[in-house]
Specification:
Strand content: 15-25%
Low-confidence stretches: none
Structural class: alpha/beta
Number of helices: 11
Mean pLDDT: 95
Distance between the termini: 50 Å
Number of strands: 12
Order of helices and strands: EHHEEHEHEEHHEHEHEHEHEHE
């Protein structure tokens, strides 16, 4: 069967998008001349905007776009194959109505109708990246490189190098620290991050960079106030520029978040701090990376957004 046009659907956060990148890169090797489009939520599009593996980036704004417009945009692509790596009710219906000859997805309850190539869901047993790659295994597409990557331009990297030089960081041990996270139940306290950063700075003569994004200015300013050692806030960056900066660092310590997966993909040894989410399923991917987890508790893996017992896992 000739495959000339492919759509990959992966909604949700930046980390989820990063963990789907090996699907894109291996499909590009298998179908070098195909049009490969990627449908993603607008809030996460920045990490793959300009990605050379992707022909067209389709951004979905769930606050503004209706289900009908979502379906119309999928149908308008006239794809030979749609890979629904999200498989929620909206994406399943759009895949079913896409007109594609191959409709690949995970047959969760109420969604099996949408796919004629069904991928056995293993999300409770394997890392999310492997969950995504199962779609390629089901299609017998060779997986030549299982790791996520962030393609960077020379301009991205030179801009970071200039900032490092201007701030006296070149040649030093540089540890980036990310105290932020979208979910309250997954945030280690600012007090703990400040104390750990002081210890790293003192014991390893390390420069501490504090990572932040939109809406997180007050939190990182408070962390700087709590620290005794000097620290630097990173400049305002795009997600791609953040990857370039993290690549330049020696280590990265972070809550479970999109930047955690960006750092791991950029190649910096990354330590993830985990609470209610199972790091074996969602942790930083790769042998150079580690996580910490309060394994003495029996409530781990609850994935709760609100904790009735005081977030003891963090």
């Amino acid at each position: 069967m000739s495959i000339n046009s492919i759509l990959i659907i992966k909604l949700w956060g930046t980390g989820d998008v990063m963990l789907s990148m090996p699907v894109v890169s291996n499909l590009r090797v298998r179908y070098p001349d195909a049009r490969i489009d990627f449908l993603v939520e607008k809030r996460s599009a920045g990490i793959i905007r300009g990605n050379l593996w992707i022909t067209n980036l389709i951004e979905f704004d769930k606050k503004k776009d209706s289900d009908i417009s979502f379906i119309r945009r999928v149908r308008a692509g006239r794809y030979d194959m749609v890979l629904d790596l999200f498989s929620n009710p909206r994406t399943a219906l759009a895949t079913f109505l896409s007109g594609a000859r191959l409709r690949v997805g995970y047959p969760f309850p109420g969604r099996s109708y949408a796919y004629n190539v069904k991928v056995t869901p293993r999300g409770d047993f394997v890392h999310n990246l492997e969950f995504n790659l199962d779609s390629l295994r089901r299609l017998n597409v060779p997986i030549l490189d299982p790791f996520p990557h962030v393609p960077l331009t020379a301009a991205d990297e030179s801009g970071v190098e200039t900032w490092f030089q201007e701030n006296g960081l070149t040649g030093r041990t540089v540890v980036a620290v990310n105290p932020n996270c979208g979910r309250e139940t997954e945030r280690w306290s600012l007090e703990n991050f400040a104390a750990l950063s002081d210890r790293i700075a003192n014991e390893y003569s390390a420069a501490i960079l504090i990572v932040w994004g939109p809406g997180e200015e007050s939190a990182v300013a408070r962390m700087q106030e709590l620290m005794k050692a000097p620290s630097l806030l990173i400049p305002k960056l795009s997600l791609i520029q953040l990857a370039a900066l993290l690549k330049r660092c020696t280590y990265f310590v972070t809550n479970d978040s999109g930047p955690m997966h960006i750092g791991a993909a950029a190649g910096v040894p990354t330590l993830g701090i985990f609470g209610p989410v199972n790091p074996k399923l969602q942790g930083p991917y790769g042998e150079r990376n580690r996580w910490v987890h309060h394994t003495a508790l029996d409530c781990l893996g609850c994935n709760l957004l609100k904790c009735p017992i005081g977030i003891r896992c963090m």
